[in-house]
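Fig. S4 source data, part A: sequence.
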Amino acid sequence: MKRIKSILKYMGMGVLLCVFSLVLFSTFGKLRPGQQMSNQPGEQPNQTSYPPPVESTSNKLAYPPPIESTYTPPPEVIETETQPIIVRTITPIPIPAYPTLTLRPGESPTLIPIVSPEKDASGKIIFAANSKDEEAVAFYSLGTSADGETIDSETKLSEEKLMSDVIIFPSPDGSRLAVTSPWGLLSIFDTQKGIYEDTQLSLGSDGIFFNWFPDNNHILFSSISLAFMDTASGELTALAVPGYGGITGAAASPDGQYVVYGYSSNIVYETGVWMVNTNGQNRQLLLKGKSPYNISWSPNGNKIVLLANGWQIINSDGSEPINISSEIILPQCYSHTPIWSPDSTTLAFVISKTGTSFCQGWTDELFDGTDIMLIDAESGKAKPLLSDGVLGNIDPVWSPDGSQLAFVSNRSGTPEIWIANRDGSNLRQATMNDVDERFIVWRKSN
């Protein structure tokens, strides 16, 4: 009986468990994820207690859009038949050294007598004039008496259609004028006959006129080499070939035996002031480290003035250099060398106090801040020719005896020729016309 009761007891407990399981299943089986049972029959289930999803107010996606790929597929490789590569070897060609000239000994130069100062100022003033109304350059002559006074009005010698930027270089005695034009063209004007000579010469497109030779026939210039030219025949004689450097300036001794020149490179020869015989032999170095581009030899042959990082006066053998005042500053593009007095004691310079430029030919700019200074050859000290302080003075030239100077000035309002004693006294106007004067020569009568 006890066993039967235990069995029934356990069976009852199992029935209760089954009934309890059915009740739980029927109750909780109606629930869905995110819902809860309604508290009252017939009501719709409420939303879950979790916060509803927030709708985006922007057009952006919750996740970044996919990045567009920049991948470029490789080009299709098409196999072709390969050819062998031929490697050529190049044998370098040797570059020869810059050609230099082997100068053969020429004839011994003829000794030219040293010219002494004349006894008085009598002679003729030759000058060029650029007409404002005509595109032409004319030459005029004006006579002077023994005391330097003008004795007649100017006379026109010749007139030619020339460019306004010509530069004129007078020979030592003033009998011939070298008229240089752009591109190296050169004409010779005979001041005694008043005509141009028939010979038309050329210095080359890059040629530079340096100086006349003291024989009044040859000229010194540089193109590929330093040479002097016979202006009657055009024949050239080379004096020095610069190699890789350049000739910067040159001048001949008044006796015609030597030429000094500046050299501007250390590759072939040493930079400096050199001297060579006029037959091209016996080159020697006078001064090291200087390459002057403006050189002038005194009439007595004892001194040389040169411009290289400042002005200096040296003896003809290169000794005893004297520095000239630092206020001696040439105008831009000024091509003329300083003018020695006939007695070799004084130099006349054109200076610029305002950066005047002579690069544009015959213009009013030539007279902006220009003045004439005199330099004592022994001391190097400078003083103005005129003490009145009026600027606009250019193109000085000494009288044949060295007692006076003639020059061009616009102090009267237009360019005219003026004359003054070498101490600045007795200033007077020599011309009064409607042309622009330049490039004065004061030569003796015959």
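Fig. S4 source data, part B ends here. Residues 121-162+325-446 form one domain.
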